[in-house]
Amino acid sequence: MAKIELSIDIAAPLNLVGAFFVPQRMTYWFGEEMDCRFEVQRGASEFESGLKVRIVGQLAKREVSLVAVVTAYQRARLLEWRFRDSYGVSGMQRWEIESAGNGARVHLRDEYELPGRIGRIWDRIFTRRAVRMRDLRDLQRLKHLAEHAGWAK
């Protein structure tokens, strides 16, 4: 199983950063390369433990979808989900937000496993680096949005 851990400091208040961890705002920074959309169980406007989320998008002209189940959520502090995508990749993503000086720090832990022996080899050679770079881009987009949010001032 691949494990990636990243952190980023954001010069914005913790509550503002946390406001981007709701279904209607996550698409602004999460999975932008897929032009993704979130389909949330019961049309919920906030995450909660046990909630199912389907994330659908296009990647290299292919539809990609994954189903995530929220396993932990604390508003403006924590979001964790377990997922499985349409290709059999499964894993867990966890974002923790904490106060850091005059801003916030977001910690991301991403764990996933590609199916089969060939999948594990492919991951070591290609996928792990790509996932790490994607996660970093997602965090950088979040940072930009939170630090430049006009309504934050």
* Radius of gyration, taken over Cα atoms and rounded to an integer in Å: 15 Å
Question: How many β-strand stretches?
Answer: 7
Low-pLDDT runs of 5+ residues are none
Structural class: alpha+beta
Write down the CATH topology: Alpha-D-Glucose-1,6-Bisphosphate, Chain A, domain 4
**Strand line-up across the major sheet:** 1-7-6-5-4-3-2
How many helices? The count is 3
Please identify, by name, the CATH architecture: 2-Layer Sandwich
Strand content: 35-45%
- Number of spatially distinct domains: 1
CATH superfamily: START domain
Biggest sheet descriptor:
7 strands, antiparallel
Please provide a written account of the structure:
This protein has 153 residues and is α+β, with helices and mostly antiparallel strands. It has one domain (2-148): Alpha-D-Glucose-1,6-Bisphosphate, Chain A, domain 4, CATH 3.30.530. The protein has 3 helices and 7 strands. It has a 7-stranded antiparallel β-sheet with strand order 1-7-6-5-4-3-2. It starts with a strand and ends in a 6-residue tail after the last helix. The model has no long low-confidence stretch (mean pLDDT 91).
Quick synopsis:
The protein is of the alpha+beta class and 153 residues long. The protein contains three helices and seven strands, in the order βααββββββα. The longest helix has 32 residues, at 116-147.
